[in-house]
Specification:
homodimer; mainly alpha; 3-stranded antiparallel sheet
Chain lengths: 456, 456
């Protein structure tokens, strides 16, 4: 970057540029911080089930509950989110967050498993906890694990941590040893395909469980490397595309499945297919892994393949925003919503590009963050009732007015805002008033938690 | 209608009106007839798998195969469609249709069942017939039954008919006696809901199997009445809405499920939720049932509740076309594609309103047919490559350029065109050159098949 070198007049220019950069970062930090307050207030006001514990997530534009089903992914995610906010940001260290998270955790402990002591969890429960549907995937269990580990971190109650670790063992067994407990029939025509969602999800659990816990971090280190290798195999077509599905041997598959699409029974309820939101989310998971591992080569590869590539192919040149699905061969996707603009690819992109800049200092990444964040704040926010709309059409018009539903809860938006707030604060603290060094290019230790307690 | 009465000058006016009506009907008959030729030519040219039998249905705009998976619904539907065209319309009584239908039938006989002799069929097969996915519903088996019965009608080969009748027995057993063979887990929180798709589908099988077959028609008569009663129970909200899901007792359900929506694992692959296309399709199934039963009171009720009601609530006043999903309480649906315009609700609407007019003589229904048909021909046809686009956005722009996919094959479009051609011919033949009587208002016997053979 060379900002701290050169002749005096260049130094003045550099100093002015830095001051401008500092002001822009500061302005975004304030926007993000305020937005996080508004978003959290929305969920605090509208989503708590005082009677049964847990959360309503089917919320209309103004927060009105339009269905009281409880989706286990979203229950786990909201418990996790509340605990994480409580733990990381001083202003959210409030009893109402902690108590709601604990009530949500108790609801999951009591009702999530379909036939205890077996660990398989439901996908959706009635308001009072009776199972409605079960998915033959690992994701309900993954969000259960995240919730329990984070509850342990804020309460120090060992029961939560043993729940988390035992469920993690079960998930790893399903993924790496024997999937038969998930109940999927083995059909001779079904390709032995790997969805990128599985190693992605596991990698995020490795980070979750290993945070500030040397023993668990050590015991999951090999698993983390395995996940990273598996995710990286999804870079296909001579490095020109990140595909959702590859064969068990890491090769491309034929047909729609191999070009990103997965037309079939489990398409909607599993993690949505990528392109480009999913690739960008995988990107920041891998970036964190590269930082933990102190691997600048991996970091550069990830920025290239999981950030810049999906952004270049996925940004709509006509209307702005990221497409939801794309086909690697440029054919028409079969998903009806492929050209819609969804909230979560945009929140994942904000995280990915701000993190990419924080870790590399490459200002091109910061400019993409600004581009995505401007679009996202302009199109998805609802200044009237708070929280974000989730579903826009290609042109950016609101297609669905709901604020929450079977797949949108208290997760992507506040996670994005909280992480961006933290990264922006960190970047600002690294920008000295004048001729400061460029942001660090090597692995850094994570910032201290202002509200940390228990756990250690 | 009173067209044949009145003073002389009124008679002249009536005669002029009738001549204009005749010309309009004739013009539509020619459009529909030509369009059917173009559509059938598209499938004949692009969809046949000469190597393995059966049909490719994942076809791009120009007919190029973009995936070679074989969806069992669409295999059965195309076999049925080819046989029906061969049997009903002289110009399609061609060996290439019959041979392709037989090859498709043989493919189904050999590969559709996942574990013969058990009757459960796959949802999707590889090109060479290995099962990829199985749905825990009855629909693959229903389209298998339609295909086999129709193959029997054109070939006279008794094996096809015994396949059809045995599969029908299995389906009825699953629906009315014991669904456990479908493999759906019984979960304590899952409401005992009935989807309108199930009695609808069964009613169409009753008609299929009973056509010109007094013995089977007699043995399924009670089943047909049961189906009709079950479908009619979906008229809810004091007669103001046709809901997709009701309880086993025929009462409304709470939440999204009870307001038409079914957010969960099987949403996409089962018959899509209604509003208004599904209600309109049920409408013409019920109309035919009312005609067979000679029940003008039922006919009037069906026209009111299953044709006019869904049309009034489902027609987009801003951009034209029928919405895909709606919520009975006017809330925002959770289906991302709710406001899109899909081909099949429009083809079902064309059938329903033309049939409603044919059976009632109410010119308001004919005017709605014209309104829907004008929109449909303008928006969905592809004059360049043939067949129709399937998926438009709310404004009517093409959202997906594919001509076929996992849910769109050689079925709704040619069925609509063939039925409309037949109904238009029949209407024209009933319009004498001058002061003819209005169309019949009571039950009529079905028109003779010009190309009938075998079966009797």
């Amino acid at each position: 970057m060379g900002r701290s070198e050169g002749e005096p007049c260049l130094q003045v220019q550099v100093s002015q540029d830095m001051e401008k950069e500092r002001e822009t970062l500061q302005a975004w930090k304030e926007r993000v911080e305020h937005e996080l307050d508004v978003v959290v207030a929305f969920w605090l006001e509208h989503s708590h089930d005082q009677e049964h514990g847990g959360f309503f997530t089917c919320l209309g534009r103004d927060g009105q509950v339009y269905d009281d089903l409880k989706y286990v992914w979203l229950q786990g995610r909201q418990v996790w989110m509340y605990c994480r906010l409580y733990r990381k940001l001083e202003r959210f260290r409030r009893p109402e967050l902690l108590n709601a998270a604990k009530a949500g955790g108790e609801f999951l402990l009591r009702y999530a498993r379909v036939a205890p002591p077996a660990k398989k969890c439901a996908f959706v429960l009635t308001r009072d906890g009776r199972p409605v549907k079960v998915q033959r995937t690992i994701f309900s269990e993954c969000f259960y694990t995240m919730a329990m580990n984070e509850l342990w971190r804020v309460t120090g109650d060992a029961q939560y941590q043993s729940e988390a670790v035992e469920m993690m063992d079960q998930i790893v067994h399903w993924v790496r040893e024997d999937p038969s407990g998930l109940g999927r029939p083995q059909l001779p025509g079904a390709p032995a395909a790997e969805s990128m969602a599985v190693p992605m999800m596991l990698l995020s659990l490795v980070e979750q469980l290993g945070e500030a816990d040397d023993e668990l971090a050590g015991s999951y280190a090999e698993l983390g490397d395995w996940c990273a290798r598996r995710i990286l195999r999804h870079v296909q077509r001579g490095g020109q595309a990140v595909l959702e599905n590859v064969s068990e041997d890491g090769e491309g598959l034929s047909g729609c499945l191999g070009r990103h699409q997965n037309p079939g029974e489990d398409t909607r309820p599993t993690l949505p297919e990528p392109s480009p939101g999913h690739a960008l989310e995988a990107g920041w998971f891998l970036l964190r892994h590269a930082v933990r591992r102190g691997d600048p080569k991996l970091r550069a590869h990830v920025i290239d393949k999981f950030l810049l590539l999906p952004f270049r192919s996925g940004w709509d040149p006509d209307h702005g925003g990221l497409f939801y699905f794309q086909d690697a061969d440029g054919l028409c996707p079969t998903q009806l919503e492929w050209a819609m603009k969804l909230w979560w690819p945009h929140s994942e992109a904000m995280i990915a590009f701000l993190m990419g800049y924080s870790e590399s200092g490459d200002s091109a990444l910061l400019n993409i963050f600004y581009q995505v964040a401007e679009y996202t704040f302009r199109q998805f926010r609802d200044p009237e009732y708070g929280e974000w709309f989730g579903y826009l059409n290609r042109e950016g018009k609101i297609a669905l007015t709901i604020k929450g539903g079977p797949f949108k809860g208290c997760f992507h938006v506040p996670r994005c805002l909280a992480m961006c707030e933290e990264m922006l604060s960190d970047l600002l603290s690294r920008l000295a008033p004048a001729s400061a060094p460029a942001p660090a290019l090597s692995a850094r230790s994570p910032p201290a938690d202002p509200a940390r307690r228990g756990a250690e």
